[in-house]
Amino acid sequence: MNILLIIVAIIAVILLFTGGFVQAVSWLLWVGIVLLVLAIIVWIVRALTGRRRV
């Protein structure tokens, strides 16, 4: 009975970590999308204004 309890506890911990990683990756994906949109907007503004830095 103790072995079954340990196995269930290990599975629960693995599922908790997996759920946390999925939420973290989802959050980082949204951050990446926002940064990509900001970079595109800055690129378009620079292209329209004609500023070019070397």
The count of helical stretches stands at 1
- Rg result: 23 Å
Topology, number of strands: 0
Topology as a string of helices (H) and strands (E): H
Number of domains: 1
Beta-strand percentage range: under 5%
What are the key terms here?
54 residues, mainly alpha, 89% helix
Q: What would you say this structure looks like, in words?
A:
The chain is mainly alpha-helical and 54 residues long. The chain is 89% helix and 0% strand. The termini are far apart. The model has no long low-confidence stretch (mean pLDDT 87).
Indicate the topology.
Layout: H1 2-49
Q: What's the short story on this structure?
A:
The protein has 54 residues and is mainly alpha-helical. The protein has one domain (1-54).
